[in-house]
Amino acid sequence: MTHETLIPLGWAAAFTVFGALLGIVLVLVAASFVPRLLNKLTPHIDEGREIARGNRAVAHYFGLVCGASILGLSLVVAAAVLGGIITAAL
After folding, report:
1. Are 27 and 74 in contact (CB under 8 A)?
2. Residues 6+ apart with CB under 8 A from 26
3. Average pLDDT of 32-36?
4. Is the Cβ–Cβ distance between 27 and 77 less than 8 Å?
5. Taking 80 as the threshold, does the pLDDT of residue 1 lie above it?
6. Boundaries of domain holding 50
7. Crossing angle of helices 3-41 and 56-89, rounded to 10°
8. For 43, phi and psi rounded to 5 degrees?
């Protein structure tokens, strides 16, 4: 491998590692922020109490909204990491 090949590969690896670490942090922040936001958006419903009482509709709604939000953020982070890799490889 030549010097012209190793430098872009090194940058691509650096972007991948940095993007992955940033993505992990963002997903963890989102996993703690989204349920609190949902609780504030539905002030008359105590989701934790309803789930403990066995209300499957609330549990299903709460899980779907939280999961979709975290999945959406994960897709954005993955696209950013891929963009960094493609940019470094050019």
Report:
1. yes
2. 73, 77
3. 87
4. yes
5. no
6. 3-89
7. 160
8. -70, -25
Contact (CB, 8 A) for 57 and 11: no
Q: Whats the size of the chain, residue-wise?
A: 90
Whether 75 and 9 have beta carbons less than 8 Å apart is answered as no
Q: Which two tokens stand for residue 54?
A: 């066995």
**Structural domains in the chain (count):** 1
Mean pLDDT of the chain: 83
Exposure pattern of 13-51 as b/e (b: 16+ CB <10 Å)? Answer: eebeeebeeebeebeeebeeebbeebeeeeeeeebeebe
Q: What is the pLDDT of residues 45-89, one digit of tens each?
A: 888 888 899 989 988 988 898 889 888 888 888 887 777 777 766
**Residue 15 Cα distances to 22, 30, 39, angstroms:** 10, 22, 36
Q: Coil, strand, or helix at residue 54?
A: coil
Single-letter code of the amino acid located at 44: H
